[in-house]
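Re-run with default settings, no changes from the original entry. Doing this only to confirm the output is reproducible before filing.
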Amino acid sequence: MNERTTMGGKPVFTVPARTVINFDSGFREKGLCDGPTFSAGTSCTGSCSYCYVPAQMLKQTAWLRAHGVEGRHEDVVIRRENAVEIARAQLESHSEEDRRRRKVIYGSPLADVAGNMELVRETVEICKVILERTQWDIRLLSKSNLLPKVAELISKGGECLGHWARTRMLFGVSTGTQCDRVGKAIERGTALVSKRVRSLHWLQHEGYRTFGMICPSLPVADYQGFARDMWKAIRGDRCERVFAEVMNLRGASFTNTVLALRTAGLTLPAERLERVSRDREAWEEYARETFLAHATCYDGTKLRFLQYVTDDTAAWWEGHRKHGAVPL
């Protein structure tokens, strides 16, 4: 463990790492980046019932145990040792030609970039390295309300960094629901959704580039109303792009989320989710209705609706690419 032994009530483990930047990730397919991503950790300060990372990290369980990590992945915080220095070294040894290309790097596919102020400061230093050594834009996504702190700290780094913070950084917060009670039930240890939205508004007011992330959204009674309300909440006209996604069948995501909703006394949302989780056709209908509702609020150049498809459903989603569908 490192000097700080807990974050958000979870034990913290720091493990050795060879990389922080992945120069060619699968997140290109989602449109979140042009290939590069960075992750300074592999487990968050928060715990989301639908999180896919524990399933993704199963192959590393033995390696993590060998390096002192104890407990379930979702119950601990795992950080990468010397993350800033590793990112710097990776970029300095990376192709200069590629560093001079205009592209987008995404942070973070594994752990929240702004879970608390300690992580904010780490993210700031990594972003400074990227801004100073590349021509890349940086897309940051968080379930916290601390992205304004990232923007402010980078802007205070000097005239160039202040300019780049507004021209080369894109800030977004996860807003799959507007209901703080629902958000609190399925996203433990994160900022209230209402606080995240206010932080997004602050960034927009101060002239920073923003994007929307309506993900994951649950089944609802009125999809058109949900889409309109989310457009208003994130100020869709001020977002450069809006990504959206329904709840996906990853590991125990449905089971865990239904249980979290029921435990919080949210019976109706739990029943709706349980129904679509048992019926593949109902799940597909829920995904299509959610997409079509969002497509009435944004044109196809702004909306990026991420949908995992099967052989039976791929043709329908491919046919809606021009309206913002992104079949995966």
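DSSP finds 14 helices and 16 strands in the chain. The first helix runs from residue 53 to 56.
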